[in-house]
Structures are given as C-alpha cells and as structure tokens.
Write a structure and sequence with these properties.
The protein has 405 residues and is an all-alpha fold. It has 15 helices and no strands.
Length: 405
C-alpha cells in the first residue's frame, strides 16, 4: 500500500476515491453557505445577523478544535478508514438537524455535532501522506485542493438555485451528500495504515485534545509551519465568515449572486491548485511558493478592506481573484511542509492538531471579525491583511535563518 500511488499513478483507485471524497466534502459544505445568513435571520433581529453568523461558525470551530486532534490520534491507532466514515456520518447528522431548525439552539446543536465529528479533512490528508513519498505530497495536496475547488464551483451555485425552492433544501442535500460519501468510503476505500505502522502505545492521555500540540512544540519545523498557518487561517476565517454578509450589505448580493461568486472561487482553486501548484513547486519549492501565496493573499485582503469604504463591484472582483490565487498557492504548500515535518507514526495526530489549530483560528476569526464589522465592513479585511503579513514575516525569517546556517 505504501507504494500504491507511485506504482499506479496519482489517480489510482484509493487516491481517486479520496479526491472524489474531498470534492463531495466541499460540495456539501458550500451548498449551505449562500443560505446561512438568511436562515439565521429567521431567529434574530436584522442588525444581529452578522454577529450570529460569526457565533454559529465559532461554535462549530470550538467543537472541532477539541475533537480533531483526538480523531487524529484515533486514526493513528485504529486506522484512517473508520475515522473518515464516522466523520462523514457525523456531518450528515449535523446538517440534518440544522435543516430541521425551528429555533436558534437547534441550529447551534446541528453545527456542534458536525464540529465534534469533523475529522474528515485531516484524515484524508493523513491518508495521502501514509501512501505518498514526501516529494509528491505538495503536488497531490494541490490536486485535492483542486477537487475541493470544484466543489466550491458546484456547491454554492446549487445552493443558491435550490434556495429558490426553500432555504432548507440545500441543507438537506448537504446531509445526503455526506451520507453518499460515507457509503462510498465504506464500500471502496482500503485502509492506508497497516497494523504494524499504527501507534502501539495509545493511552488515555492521547484523548486529550491538547496532547498532539506537544509534538508541535518539540519540533522547530512544525512550530514554524503551525505559526504561519495559524496567521493565514485566522485571516481566512474572518473573510469566510463575513463574505456572505459583506457582499449582501455592501454589494447588495442575493443568495444566487453569493453562490456565483463562490463558484468563481472554486474555478480559480481548480486552476491554481490543480495546475499552477504542480508546475511551480518543482521550480520554487514549498517554502518559496508559500511566500508567494502569502504576498498575493495579503494584497487581496487589502483590496477587500478598501471595498468596505469604496463599494465598487469591479474592485470586489479584482480582490476576489488576487486573494484566491494567493490562497491556492499557499494551502498545498503549507500542507506539504506540515506533512513532511510530521513523524511517520504521528501523521494523524499532527494533521489533527493542524485541523485543530485551524478550528481555533475559526473561533477567534469570526468573533474578531464580528467586532470589527460593526466599525466598518472593510475593517475585518484590513486586520486579515496584517495577520497574513505577520505569517509571511515568520516564514521569511525561517527561510533566511536556514540560508545563513
């Protein structure tokens, strides 16, 4: 199994299934984005919608922060396949409860269940790292990112169109997609981590969600990568949380228009991660490509910030393009850096910790964005630009220190 991708090519059976699973995961998640603020608007005053979108998103992230490292540890001890299937089924249950609704606390419960079982992305990345040599991981992570990008193309557009039938129709479709994904994995996905390569000293303390971060603190390479990634994901969380509300308030977008804009993001992800990353990585390497991505990302955030004071549609389109190309170059690059720095017998725990820190960023980001949004709709994006520039500074310092040494 360890040489499966090398012997049969990157689109061999298991990797093809993981790629489709990544697509379906993005599809299910993004179907719901265009209708989220409109669903919440049924339960709160109009001037509280932006705040409550941030709160609901943060609750999901808090639950995922505590659960993802534990799920990663369980996958190191018991294999990737059962954890992935359980995570997908948990998402289905969470979406179903969210769709039933009826009260704000029911929406919160649905997102909490999804967060507590949300180890699917980190498990997929750990799966690929199990069966891929280090030099190929960044490229394959780029293909997975492109698959997710394709989900971003289809999901928001479908969600926006289905919202015409009812606001809950996209939510129930997301639940159905998660069930299909879980069933496919159950029937067709082989285990990537054989018993002899699993963690043998799995103990009760490994269920501590903070334990995997001890591995990060012991590795300078992982610590740097995590610090850079946290800055990026903090900024990204501010944008992702506010995008629907921001475009609704500033550019007067409808659910269909929000879906179309997010669909364009998916197209750019396909081009950037599916094509450009594979070509640029051999020339620049993961660290240099991550730097380029952060520069573009910061520029995109700055343009979004200006849009808050100068609401011009053409400026918003330029901001979206610049931001997303930076995002597409950075994410597979940092994914490869993290995977290559992780110990072979702790890939799941490190990937779980990485998803956990992303969740922490998604707790802090929406809350910070909600507070800044009250000052000016562009303020969260100005803060995002500063966070990305901080991450760029940390990464550049690491690259220069290694060059001097």
């Amino acid at each position: 199994m360890a040489t499966l991708f090398r012997n049969r090519g990157p689109m061999s059976g298991p990797f093809a299934l993981i790629t489709v699973s990544m697509f379906l995961n993005a599809l299910g998640f993004t179907i719901a984005i265009p209708v989220l603020p409109f669903l919440i608007a049924d339960y709160v005053a109009p001037d509280r919608v932006g705040v409550m979108v941030g709160v609901v998103t943060a609750i999901f992230a808090v639950c995922q922060f505590f659960a993802a490292p534990v799920l990663g540890g369980l996958s190191d001890a018991h294999g990737r396949r059962p954890v992935l299937i359980a995570s997908l089924l948990g998402s289905a249950v969470g979406f179903a409860i969210f769709g039933v609704g009826g009260a704000l606390w029911v929406l919160v419960l649905g997102r909490a269940i999804d967060g507590l079982t949300g180890g699917n992305i980190s498990t997929m990345l750990a799966y690929v790292a199990d069966v891929t040599p280090p030099q190929d991981r960044g490229r394959l992570f780029g293909i997975l990112g492109a698959a997710a990008g394709f989900g971003f193309v289809i999901g928001p557009a479908v969600g926006g169109l289905l919202a015409g039938a009812s606001l809950t129709t996209p939510i129930f479709l997301a639940a159905a997609v998660a069930v299909v994904n879980a069933g496919w994995a159950f029937l067709a996905l082989p285990e990537s981590l054989p018993p002899e390569r699993r963690t043998r000293d799995f103990r009760l303390e490994h269920l501590n969600p903070f334990a995997p971060f001890g591995l990060v603190l012991q590795s300078p390479a992982l610590l740097t990568a995590f610090a850079v990634a946290f800055c990026f994901y903090l900024a990204a969380a501010m944008l992702q949380t506010n995008f629907a509300v921001f475009t609704m308030d500033v550019l007067h977008f409808t659910p269909a228009a929000i879906g179309a804009a997010l669909g364009a993001v998916g197209v750019m992800d396909i081009v950037t991660q599916g094509v450009l990353v594979g070509r640029l990585l051999p020339m620049l390497g993961e660290e240099r490509l991550a730097q380029v991505g952060l520069v573009l990302n910061a520029a995109g955030f700055a343009l979004f910030a200006v849009l808050g004071w100068l609401p011009v549609l053409s400026l918003g389109l330029v901001a979206l393009v610049v931001y997303n190309f930076g995002d597409g170059l950075f994410q597979p690059s940092i994914g490869g850096i993290v995977a290559n720095a992780a110990p072979p017998d702790a890939q799941g725990r490190v990937q779980g910790a990485n998803q956990g820190q992303q969740s922490l960023a998604r707790v802090a980001g929406p809350l910070l964005a909600a507070a800044l949004y009250a000052v000016n709709p562009g303020a969260p994006f100005a803060a995002g630009a500063l966070a990305v520039l901080l991450g760029l500074t940390v990464l550049t310092s690491q690259v220069r220190a290694r060059a001097v040494a």
